[in-house]
Amino acid sequence: MTTSPTAPFENPRAARVWRLFGDGRMVLMIALALFVFLTVLYPLFQVVWRSFIVEGSLSLANYEAVFLRASNFVAVWNSLWVSVIATAISVVIGTLGAFVVMRTDIPWKGALSLLFVLPFAIPPLFSAMGWVQLAGPVGLISQGWRAMFGPGPVPWNIYSATGIIFVLGVSNYPLVFLTVAGALQRVDPTLEEAARTAGVGTGRIMRDITLPLVKPAIYGGGLLAFVSSIDNFGIPAVLGMRAQFYVLTTRIYEALTVPNMPLATAMSVLLVGVALVAMVGFRRAEGGRSQYAVIGGKSTTPGIIKLGRAKPWVVAAIVLTILIVVVAPLFALVLTSFLRFWGAPLTWEFLTTRHYEAIFNTPAARRGILNSLLLAAGAATILVFTTALISWLNIKGRVRGAGTLDAIGLIPFALPGSVIGVAMILAWSNPPVGPALYGTIWILLLAYIMRYMAFGLQTSRATLTQIHDSLEEAAMASGASRMRTVRDITLPLLRPGLVAGWILIYISAFNELTVSVLIWTSGSETIGVWIFLMQDSGFTGRAAALAVLTLPVILILYLLMRWYARLEERRQKRQG
Amino acid sequence: DSPSGTVNFYSSMQLDIVEPIIAAFEERHPDVSVDLLYSGSVELEQRIFAEIEAGSLRADVIWAANPALFLNLKDAGWLAAHETEHTEAIPEGLRDPDNMWFAGRVHNMGVGYNTNLVAPDDVPTNWAEFLEWGPQAALASPLHSGTNFNMMGAFVQHDGIGWEWFEQAREAGVQVVRGTGDVTRGLVAGEFAVIKGIDYIMAAQAADGAPVSFAFTTDGVLSLPSPIAIGAGTDNPDAAAAFMDFILSAEGQQLLVDQHFLPVRTDVDPPAGLPSPSEIIALDVDYEWLAENGSELRERFSDLY
Amino acid sequence: MNSSSGAVTVQGLAKQFGALRAIDTVDFSIAQGEFFTLLGPSGCGKTTTLRCVAGLESADTGRIEIDGKPVFDSATGLDLPANERAIGMVFQSYAVWPHMNVAENIGYPLKVRGVAGTQIAARVEEVLKLLDMAGLGGRMPSQLSGGQQQRVALGRALAIEPRVLLLDEPLSNLDAKLRELMRAELKLIQRRAGLPILYVTHDQVEALSMSDRIAVMSAGRIHHLAAPEEIYDRPATRFVLDFVGAVNYLPCTVAGHEGGRMRLDVGGGTLEIAAPERLPAAADLTVAIRPEDLELAATGADDAPRARITLRGFVGEGFEYRLELGGQSLRARTEKTVVFEEGAEVVLTARRGVLVDAAAGLDSAVAAA
Amino acid sequence: MNSSSGAVTVQGLAKQFGALRAIDTVDFSIAQGEFFTLLGPSGCGKTTTLRCVAGLESADTGRIEIDGKPVFDSATGLDLPANERAIGMVFQSYAVWPHMNVAENIGYPLKVRGVAGTQIAARVEEVLKLLDMAGLGGRMPSQLSGGQQQRVALGRALAIEPRVLLLDEPLSNLDAKLRELMRAELKLIQRRAGLPILYVTHDQVEALSMSDRIAVMSAGRIHHLAAPEEIYDRPATRFVLDFVGAVNYLPCTVAGHEGGRMRLDVGGGTLEIAAPERLPAAADLTVAIRPEDLELAATGADDAPRARITLRGFVGEGFEYRLELGGQSLRARTEKTVVFEEGAEVVLTARRGVLVDAAAGLDSAVAAA
Ligand SMILES: Nc1ncnc2c1ncn2[C@@H]1O[C@H](COP(=O)(O)OP(=O)(O)OP(=O)(O)O)[C@@H](O)[C@H]1O
Ligand SMILES: Nc1ncnc2c1ncn2[C@@H]1O[C@H](COP(=O)(O)OP(=O)(O)OP(=O)(O)O)[C@@H](O)[C@H]1O
Ligand SMILES: [Mg+2]
Ligand SMILES: [Mg+2]
């Protein structure tokens, strides 16, 4: 036995564990488990625990209160069907948009893909308000309609389930767009070419070949859009309450205002339950692991589909879509930021720049912008790496338990922001060990990590399933250890997915409101907090101006990304 | 010796009200710095209760719009009593008998109307007339707006109005929207003709050029104190007390009057054009009763709407 | 329209990738029912040419017709997409659809054409049997070995009967046995349907044994376009001689010329080959002799060159020898009956040989008795 | 520890995928410096066996040692990861890293081992030259042809000098010329470094010409493990006879037996082959004759079988014929000097043949003069 450096075990299971330790997977697993425990499980536990406490003792009373009220079931049902339809809209817009922009010879690709992700930068509350301003009873579109077809009610009602679905759908599709666009770039084009030479037309290729190949990404993006819909509060609050149309989040908000936090947490647990069931459904539908390994060891350059005669039509459809889902709400937002007060008539005398002046004269608002820039970058960077490693352990490393980490990481995304905020306060005011982070800026970082872990997990998962196993195996056979393989082969190949995930997290965290508003303190204000506070105290114009100010940030981010992509391209083109 | 250090100040008062007061105070007490944590009233309450749930209240001074919150805090022992020279100048209804809280400000909820849609003759003079506007009338949900919640309490206990008012509103098609912001925006934009509006908000909007105005009703408006109090766990009681005294002082109140608010002191004149507190017919509010029956009321309302 | 009668006509095709001329003017025409092969070393532009014909790559200049119908013309900007060119194609990288099982992969082109389900199933069964893959219809591609995947790709192209079949090294991952079977099957299909085939391979034997005509390519150009025997026996350029089959080069001088035969002094002895024309004695030449044309014997004429066996390799049907002759290494191939030990001395004679100018390219090709 | 002296020892290896037995008990041992080949048809389990040796797949049962050190043992649960097995490997699917250029791909194994940058660059240059890819070091894989990518994969395994080299059809996408060059280079590397090679191929010629020993596999089992000549001339099972080289089967009865030679009546005539032992006359047998062992002549003995040429194919070094003899199709291979037209009648004699029991598998292998 002396010749072997590795202690052989009598027990195969012990040997397996030893192997896991030996190549670093177990160490990594333990580190990541600790990370997930601290950022997700422990705060989550604080919330769940409270839901079982009534007047200091364990009780199911809160759950009874939740389950005995019929209106709660109505709210669950409303949440479900509204989110499902909204997700369908998001998936259709996001997937079609991504396909056209990434894989056809349409002009102005750069500008189009920027425009397509831009709505993501608008806080949902503003989307809702923007759409009220556009299509509400006295909105611009409604006024136009009346001017054309005479006075009387318009044939639509923004204050309805339909309105909620529409606004949710057009607000959340960038989640699908970003995930699917990344996947499309990586599909081996010979698979499409093979269909083409078999006599299949473009549309059919897309349906039969391309779509199934990027299915994991579509499901991944769809899952994000779904959870994003089901946990949205701003849109159903603005558009639903007037129609007495309640969803779970608006019910939870009510419970929080009473305030009956145990009841709210019990309802949140219900929401998490609903979201989890949906997630399991999505994951099931994603299907098997290796079916989609399309980044293989045989390399080809991505193919571009010539639209030919259909080009003008496609361009027209895209431009129309962008006008409706991107330009219109953005216009409403920008308009609001320049109007003296929300709803003022559109004449010169009511236009003003004083909202912008007010912002630049408020030191806290300026500080908020800086804080948001840093916090978002921090959260995005940390999450991108940790979630990539979790996904890797799960999909490639095949470590038992990594799947559980992955599932746990998705849960917080289904929690309403205010519940996460409460969880952070409960968890970090007087933690059993370590410093009290509540009251410092670090709690915001932790909160963003908790809230957006799902983005990182979903995007890295979608990319990882596309990487063929043999590429990692070749590195191992070259003598690289498992961890080295991850560093040198897997992470670089994951890069497009990681960049997409980073951007998703960055943009979301950059103007996050609902969590931040509960846990910020002076010195750690964020741009989202200020948008919310301005909005809440009636300074709609200033809030809109702040939201508009976030747009250049997105723009710069996007330009950086393009620059990076071109750099990468040039690297690829470089010839010896 | 003069107070020094930091005061953690939790406030749901609008920034343009609070900031000048803080600035004036810090000028007077250069050794004290006030850390303002401003938040919407609902979020502020969520935060306060979460902190309490977690075992410690960070706030040294709290100033919020909902009196019931302070009754709850007082009952749970989270407030510290404040003995002050200003007690004499503040009427009894505007302070706690045990000196646990004082009103720092008063605002009124009456009828807000759109001057383009409502002729001067048609402005509702009482709450029954308000209902005649049907779907063109709106209020913020008492479930989300603290002021409306208090108003609901006042209505229900009022002999001439009562719970029936809400049932009639429902029948007439009166709109209930989420918060004060929504209802104000709807009024400004012309979606609504009349709303349950707040005096200083209407005044501020009108100052911006919006076609809105505010009217007092003859059967009573809601005159709501916004209490201010010191947290029981404060680690800088001197500075906290100094800050609170400054707000209650004649100088502090004058700053509020400059912003269209009614003063809480009898020795400070109200803003020009506003009735003096004695001319206003205010609804009675029993905050104790409200604190006790609030949940039930809310449930009743959410069953109705 | 100057349409020709060929199944595929390619005129003046050129394509650059950046600074690299992947195809540098290629012209050829495939007749109806012809088996036409592009043969050349790795990276010479075979796949690129095929992809241009398929419509998967747009050439920079040139003109392509399929069945007399122009499908690409750089002058007019015409460029039909692949699905409108009525072709069947097998990819070098298989390109088996990972989300469909074997039967679905093969049946898909039929399904697209609206063939009824039962008919598809029957045809797929047939193709699977042909590919020696019966019973594997339900497998997913990730559960297949490399060769099995290649067969699926082949089956997909065979399922329908296209106007032209484009094949990019479709047999490279099959074992010799199966490869031979598939070769025969391809020939059969082609004969039966009169189907023109454009075949890409780097395998000389494959090219020689299957093709009606072969275009030997190098660095984006066609060096020689002719029937297999001509390519092998009378190569147009030294590259072709060199690439198609192994060859020994021996520097030599002309020692004599008698009765259509030439005596060449190769240093260490004299070899005799047939020569149609007279060359000046002592011209500075090289003779190229293929390994199988070198005859080895234990004894022979006194002036014949004598070489030493350095290595013997068994290749099944015979032996491959490495010989040393005056410091040069030669290769020879013999039947199994001719056995020499390593280290033995053998006498060389040449059955055939080709004279090459040492300075320039290929000068004359000379067949011997 | 019952370690053997072999470079690689595989004992009782078995691996199932679901219900499919991909490897069904495989045993072999590779000596130091030996060139060992797994040869078999597509899907027989070659790649799976190789992957188990590499540590990329865990076998269900069995034991593997590399250099006398156990690396896998299903009994103890030992299973070293690939990077601790000191192997070099070339993948059938290339597995070239798409995000690294050619030089980075080849240099990576050196980099992992901490070799200095300048040394890496020099070694990469060397390997590139060897692979006939000098100057392509800066290209990205997506800009390479199929064969070029395969060469990069090969270069990656050659860059370091591993304890064992595992090669999964590393030459399948190279042209014959380059393949031969690489074969020679592989042999050279192996001899120089005494490097044991485990080679996987489906190409008989490749296997026969390069290997010291060959294991012929089918359906997850080794049928015959021996030196190339033995495999070819004295195949252990009918499968091996059939798979390694082409073969003609003729039903026959023993017509006579004289002086170590046997006369076989094949219907239509008599063939004579050498036979070491006597068989009862008229036993119901089959004789297997390889195409190159069938001699064709215009004339011959009266009782020799006469066949008709149905097809002639040119294969460069000679011709391949299809013959018809009494309703059966036969194949024969001749040198270029033996030319018959299609339709001609030829007389057959056999140089060698192997007797096969018609009922059971392979009975006796018989070499002829
Ligand atoms: N997309 C590309 N960008 C740059 N160069 C390319 C690209 N595709 C091919 N090449 C180069 O063009 C040349 C021709 O490539 P092609 O694929 O046609 O070769 P091939 O003859 O099919 O070779 P093989 O037998 O190895 O498959 C090669 O040098 C290759 O590296
Ligand atoms: N992951 C898998 N799941 C199920 N079956 C598999 C899997 N991998 C391989 N097989 C099957 O196992 C058998 C052996 O596969 P293997 O790849 O070892 O074949 P091979 O001998 O290398 O063939 P080839 O020469 O075609 O590459 C094949 O029938 C194959 O379909
Ligand atoms: Mg090629
Ligand atoms: Mg294989």
UniProtKB/TrEMBL annotation, chain A:
Keywords, A to Z, come to: Cell inner membrane, Cell membrane, Membrane, Transmembrane, Transmembrane helix, Transport
Q: List, alphabetically, the Gene3D superfamilies matched.
A: MetI-like
Q: Name one GO biological process term.
A: transmembrane transport
Membrane-crossing ranges are 26-45, 80-102, 114-136, 156-176, 217-241, 261-282, 313-339, 373-395, 407-429, 435-454, 497-523, 543-565
Where in or outside the cell is it found?
Cell inner membrane; Cell membrane
* Main localization (coarse): membrane
> Can you name a GO cellular component term?
plasma membrane
ABC transmembrane type-1 domain: residues covered: 76-282, 369-561
Instruction: Keyword check for Transmembrane helix, yes or no.
Output: yes
Q: How does it sit in the membrane?
A: Multi-pass membrane protein
Superkingdom in the source lineage = Bacteria
Please tell me whether the keyword Cell membrane is annotated for this protein: yes
Q: Which family does it belong to?
A: Belongs to the binding-protein-dependent transport system permease family.
Q: Which PANTHER family match?
A: INNER MEMBRANE ABC TRANSPORTER PERMEASE PROTEIN YDCV
What is the name of this protein? Iron ABC transporter permease
Automatic annotation (TrEMBL), chains C, D:
Name the UniProt key words of this record, in alphabetical order.
ATP-binding, Nucleotide-binding, Transport
Ranges annotated as spanning the membrane = none
Q: Which Pfam families does the entry link to?
A: ABC_tran, TOBE_2
Q: Write down the InterPro entries for this protein, in alphabetical order.
A: AAA+_ATPase (IPR003593), ABC_SmlMolc_Importer (IPR050093), ABC_transporter-like_ATP-bd (IPR003439), ABC_transporter-like_CS (IPR017871), Mo/tungstate-bd_C_term_dom (IPR008995), P-loop_NTPase (IPR027417), Transp-assoc_OB_typ2 (IPR013611)
Q: Would you tell me the Gene Ontology cellular component terms?
A: ATP-binding cassette (ABC) transporter complex
Write the protein's name: ABC transporter ATP-binding protein
Assigned protein family: Belongs to the ABC transporter superfamily.
Which species is this record about? Answer: Rhabdonatronobacter sediminivivens
Gene Ontology molecular functions: ABC-type transporter activity; ATP binding; ATP hydrolysis activity
> Any idea where the ABC transporter domain is?
8-244
Source superkingdom: Bacteria
> Upper taxonomic classification of the species?
Bacteria, Pseudomonadati, Pseudomonadota, Alphaproteobacteria, Rhodobacterales
Write out the coiled-coil annotation as residue ranges: none
